[in-house]
Design a protein that fits this description.
Layout (H helix, E strand, L loop, with lengths): L1 H8 L3 H5 L3 H42 L3 E10 L1 H4 L3 E11 L3 E11 L3 E8 L4 E7 L1 E10 L2 E10 L6 E10 L1
Antiparallel strand pairs: 1-8, 2-7, 3-6, 3-8, 4-5, 4-7
Length: 170
């Protein structure tokens, strides 16, 4: 209403209200309250963003899982005299059931390499076989302990070279 009167008579609001101290102080008080409320809203918004960010990273870090096995090795006549070579065993445990990403790269120059994942009851959960293995997939694992077993067989030469890189993560 005051703005309409000011516009109608082409008088500034300050000149119009200069003698009415009560209205001027009321307007100033409302401006201060509005500014305080706006500053409080910004502070609450920033605090909320910080809290949500901290909670997210805390949750993410508490659920992070990573397991790696890798090796490059050459086996000589002594190891290749058997029909198979137990290359490696790796173990990991999961505190809860979850989906994990499995990345596997493995190569053997003669014969086959076999990669097995067995659970704590020795039940086979995953198996890959071949001379060159390259695989990446998401798998669901139940809570518990697991063993990754790597075996080589089917080689004819006295010297066998192989390498593998296995990453299990979420």
């Amino acid at each position: 209403m005051i703005i309409k009167i000011s516009d109608y008579f082409n008088i500034s609001i300050d000149d119009l209200l200069k003698h009415d101290r009560k209205i001027v102080s009321k307007i100033d008080s409302q401006k201060k309250k509005t500014r305080i409320y706006f500053e409080m809203l910004i502070a609450v918004t920033i605090a909320s963003i910080l809290i949500v960010t901290c909670l997210y990273f805390n949750y993410k870090n508490s659920n992070t899982f990573a397991f790696t096995m890798n090796k490059e090795e050459t086996y000589t006549r002594h190891e290749t005299s058997d029909t198979e070579i137990q290359v490696a065993n790796g173990f990991f445990s999961l505190p809860k059931s979850t989906k994990l990403k499995l990345d596997i790269n493995a190569v053997i120059d003669d014969g086959k390499i076999h990669i097995y994942i067995l659970n704590q009851d020795d039940k086979l959960c995953y198996q890959l076989d071949g001379q060159e293995i390259e695989d990446s997939q998401n798998l669901f694992f139940d809570k518990g302990s697991y063993m990754i077993q790597i075996v080589a067989d089917g080689y004819d030469e006295d010297v066998v070279s192989l390498n593998y890189d296995i990453n299990v993560h979420n």
